[in-house]
Design brief:
three-stranded antiparallel beta sheet, Rossmann fold, Pantoate--beta-alanine Ligase, Chain: A,domain 2, alpha/beta, six-stranded parallel beta sheet, 2 domains, binds pantoate, 304 residues, globular, 17% strand
Length: 304
């Protein structure tokens, strides 16, 4: 089925939402994209969709003539010992949610389709990938960059949509697009939080009720950082120390990093200012959680 068939078929003429097509094969996905005359939006995901994913999907539906959501738990972005096997999966629930929203295509390749035997290529965005998450997850950004580039080549989207919770991932993708002259407009949406302040993440599924209570310290730490910056405290060290105190008060938390840094290069700052990024990675039980905020209205000595 081509893109045009899908959008202007008999269901559409009867005012029914067009049926969502599920595609597993790379060649069929390419053929569908080639047949699209209008703009195509792509929302790349690893599934187990939550509200933040669905907001990205809605943004794509609003901005583009056709929307493809990819659902692929990408093995190359997990290092040995990480949670690839246990990553939460709910294919049927995801499919139902996307179909209800009016998504045109769900692209669900299997590992063999994306990485056939003999696959040898690496994609590395340098420097920015060595800091923050890259320091402890050596395979993550290479695996992520290769799969995102493959998805861009297969789906050929005009626009692609990512969440800002993984701020570093977003910057790596923007760098990849800029450096390789890719014809994709990368758009992002702010972090979505539950009512208690926890940033939405598929990995929140790993948290038991006590761990979830402890995990709220991430957002409290960021809130404290914002307040310190707004009250004129410039010292990045004082801000890091305060966040550390707030997180360490909670049982079962293990801090991986607390960073006060430039939002594009991720170089650590001595003094904060408007636009500085505060980024956190903390293990709580089996979950590795990340969160961040950009400082706004900081009373700053050194704005960038
Ligand atoms: O953010 C994610 O879910 C993944 O890293 C992505 C972008 C879908 C690539 O596998």
């Amino acid at each position: 089925m081509t893109c045009r068939d899908n959008r202007f078929g008999p269901r559409e003429m009867k005012n029914l939402a067009p049926e969502m097509k599920t595609i597993q094969s790379v060649s069929e996905m390419k053929e569908w994209s080639r047949s699209c005359s209008g703009s195509v939006g792509l929302v790349p995901t690893m599934g187990y969709l939550h509200r933040a994913h669905l907001d990205l999907v809605q943004k794509s539906l609003d901005a583009c003539d056709a929307t493809t959501v990819s659902l692929f738990v990408n093995p190359t972005q997990f290092s040995p010992g990480e949670d690839f096997e246990n990553y939460p999966r709910d294919w049927d629930g995801d499919r139902a949610r996307l179909e209800t929203m009016g998504v045109d295509v769900l692209f669900m390749p299997d590992t063999e389709a994306m990485y056939p035997s003999g696959f040898k290529t690496n994609v590395e965005v340098q420097e920015v990938t060595r800091r923050l998450c890259g320091a402890t997850r050596p395979d993550y950004f290479k695996g992520m960059a290769v799969v995102v580039l493959k998805l861009f080549n297969i789906v050929r989207p005009d626009k692609a949509f990512f969440g800002e919770k993984d701020w570093q991932q977003l910057q790596v993708i923007k760098t990849l697009v800029r450096d390789l002259n890719l014809d994709v407009d990368v758009q992002s949406l702010p972090i979505v939080r539950d009512a208690d302040g926890l940033a939405l993440s598929s990995r929140n599924e790993y948290l038991n009720p006590d761990e979830r209570r402890s995990a709220l310290a991430l957002n409290r730490g960021l809130q404290a950082a914002r307040e310190m910056a707004a009250s004129g405290i410039f010292s990045a060290r004082s801000i890091r120390d305060r966040i550390r105190e707030i997180i360490e008060e909670e049982p079962g938390t293990e801090i991986e990093f607390i960073s006060v840094c430039d939002p594009e290069s991720f170089v650590e700052l001595d003094e904060t200012g408007d636009g500085a990024l505060i980024a956190l990675a903390v293990r709580v039980g089996k979950a590795r959680l990340i969160d961040n905020c950009l400082l706004e209205n900081a009373k700053c000595k050194s704005p960038f």
